[in-house]
Amino acid sequence: MFYADIMKLPQLKELVLLGGAKGIHRPIRWLYFADCMECLENSDNLGDWIHGGELIIVTNISITRNIKKLKQFMYAADKKNAAGFIINVGQISPEIIQVADTLAMPLFELSLSIKLVDLSQLVCKKLIEQENRENALDRFFADLLYTTYKSDMETIYKAQYYGIDLQKPACIAIFRLFSEKGTVNEAEQEEYRTNLQKAIQYEFYNQGSKNLLLLTQNNDIIIRIPLYTLQADIKEVLQHIRNYFARFCKLSFWVGVSDTCDTVEGLKAAVKDAVKTIRISQIMDKKELFYKEMGIYSILTNVENESLLVDYYKDRLGLLIDFDKRQDKNLCDTLETYLECDCNVRKTSSVLFVHRNTLRNRLDKIENILNQKIEGLSFCMELQFAFKVKTYCDMFLL
């Protein structure tokens, strides 16, 4: 839920935003009353008591009058990506407003006419309603992708009920967190995935996509991007998500984006394309990859008889691969680099950090093993393609 949803409630019309307006689209996950004894005794460790997304209410005058302590609260809350603060009227100093503006942390003044019990009841009710709606959207999205409806029109009408137009241009994006094995535990991974989901919802809400279809599967987050609602280029939107997420998490993520679709069946095909794209992004070492940018890999991922791919690269590189294994050499790497450097000896020797004579000796050895000169556009392109096929097979088939 976002602040715009709260501000629509007539009972809270006297809730006044005093600072941090640039963060007004921070997502709200729950309320947290920071007047508890734990917080009073551990003012430096507010981050230990929240998970992120909390709208923090502070009414204890011993905290609000202590500018240093309140600033500590705000900085600790920002590190955990809290939603914002609500403080009683007359207890907010200009210095605290300045901190809120610096952090883009929404800071609201609570009027005496609004009772805390009413505030908590209204906000919590809205949060529960929003969660129920998101759960319903999740189920609908899962059914849309993985089950068969009687007709496309049935699906289209059901989507319209949720304010979603499946007949307008959209694409599928898959976000995948990555980390070195053993660097984060399961609980941390779950927290990072939740924060990434918030970052995605935050940015697309800003872009006008209030009914975002989103589904989490293991370490992936799958979303349908309604292109017709975006106010910026999709690459710019993805960069905003990356920047926002980086503020709170040490992990990064891959993104694979499908082609555009505007039909129900096209949406299902787009999911398959996005899966292929995010797999290939790891081969191409691109944190962000669009299906149209896959190049030759868009062909490889659509080959159903995968044994053909293995046979293809082994027919052309098998002798060299076997030699490297027997002799513990890396002539395959030498040849691949040479081809990537447009068969330029000087450039290749520079990339490999070897003398040109050493490189020439290696190339002579490779030609002897392959029993063919490494020359001619057709043969060199064939070898390059074989290396790409090998890379693909090594990562996904073997």
Automatic annotation (TrEMBL):
InterPro entries: CdaR-like_regulators (IPR051448), CdaR_GGDEF (IPR041522), PucR_C-HTH_dom (IPR025736), PucR_C-HTH_sf (IPR042070), PucR_dom (IPR012914). Residues 331-389 form the PucR C-terminal helix-turn-helix domain. Gene3D superfamilies: PucR C-terminal helix-turn-helix domain (1.10.10.2840). Residues 152-280 form the CdaR GGDEF-like domain. Residues 5-126 form the Purine catabolism PurC-like domain. Belongs to the CdaR family. PANTHER family: CARBOHYDRATE DIACID REGULATOR, DNA-BINDING TRANSCRIPTIONAL ACTIVATOR ADER. This is PucR C-terminal helix-turn-helix domain-containing protein. It comes from Propionispira arboris. The lineage of its organism: Bacteria, Bacillati, Bacillota, Negativicutes, Selenomonadales.
